[in-house]
Write a structure and sequence with these properties.
The protein is 2% helix and 55% strand. With 258 residues, it is mainly β. It has a single domain, classed as Porin. Strands 1, 2, 3, 4, 5, 6, 7, 8, 9, 10, 11, 12 and 13 form a 13-stranded antiparallel β-sheet that branches. A hairpin with a 2-residue loop joins strand 9 and strand 10.
């Protein structure tokens, strides 16, 4: 799976599908997007998966050299059966970065996810499955040395900083319905050298429903006292293409093609 993104202003996670769905992706996160939206989605992968993306802001028009990218690898383990319930496990590793002439940041994200409680009907169709996942985020940030020569400005000291965070997620999938919950910054190190500045907890709750060739997804996020609603619609065409549209409380209307 290969993503290329051309944006005027955006984030490393602005790939077509999640962005086109208005970021209403907590309940349907799967594949490489599980590194950014819901780590429990890694357990939905049935085969080896590799995803990569890159974007450049104002390519050849800015001297700031603003660019970002990511790649992710997910390795599913073989299914085993314990007490009549199928247990599936996946592990993965993601990497994303942001780079400019002044500031750079790199993030390493190991992921582990399991799914279980596989209930089937008389015809062998899966009726319900529970997914749980955890993601660690270890990132390094640094001001580049050319902008760190002033000893009177401590913010541009040029020192390297390492931070660590823990995210968690859960998904409950039925035949035509999915529910998702994610918590970002569940555990976090301080953002300041003084040790008293922590990122806010970011919680997202979403649901999605399959209606014939349509997928409707809705969710609400909460962080630092602010609620952010998201709504997305995906229409699967017979020729293998998907048309997406959504409403994002931060970016208004969105559209996508995949």
């Amino acid at each position: 799976m290969l993503f290329f993104s051309v944006t005027i202003a955006g984030d490393v996670t602005d790939v077509a599908y999640p962005k086109g769905m208005g970021a209403a992706y907590t309940a349907i996160s799967d594949g490489g997007t599980s590194f950014f939206y819901n780590p429990a989605g890694a357990s939905t992968v049935k085969g080896y998966l590799f995803s990569i993306g890159y974007q450049n802001l104002f390519f050849n028009l800015s001297e700031d050299n603003l660019n970002s990218g990511f790649f992710g690898v997910i390795l599913p383990w073989k299914r085993c059966v314990r007490e009549g319930a199928a247990l599936r496990m996946s592990t993965g590793l993601g990497f994303d970065y942001f780079n400019s002439d002044i500031y750079s940041k790199m993030t390493f994200s190991p992921v582990v996810a399991v799914s279980f409680l596989n209930h089937e009907d008389f015809f062998g169709r899966v009726k319900k499955r529970v997914h749980l996942g955890f993601r660690g985020r270890f990132y390094r940030e640094q001001f580049n040395s050319d902008y760190a020569r002033d000893p009177f400005d401590p913010l541009l000291s040029g020192r390297e900083h390492w931070r660590s965070f823990l995210d968690a997620g859960a998904m409950l999938t039925f035949e035509h319905a999915r529910f998702g919950l994610s918590a970002r910054n569940l555990l976090a190190s301080s953002l300041s050298d003084s040790g008293n500045v922590f990122p806010p907890l970011d919680v997202r709750l979403g649901m999605a429903f399959d209606i014939s060739s349509l997928l409707l997804s809705a969710e609400v996020g909460y962080s630092d006292g602010e609620y952010t609603p998201h709504l997305g619609l995906n229409w699967s065409l017979q020729n293998g293409f998907d048309l997406m549209c959504g409403l994002d409380s931060k970016h208004w209307a969105t559209m996508g093609l995949g």
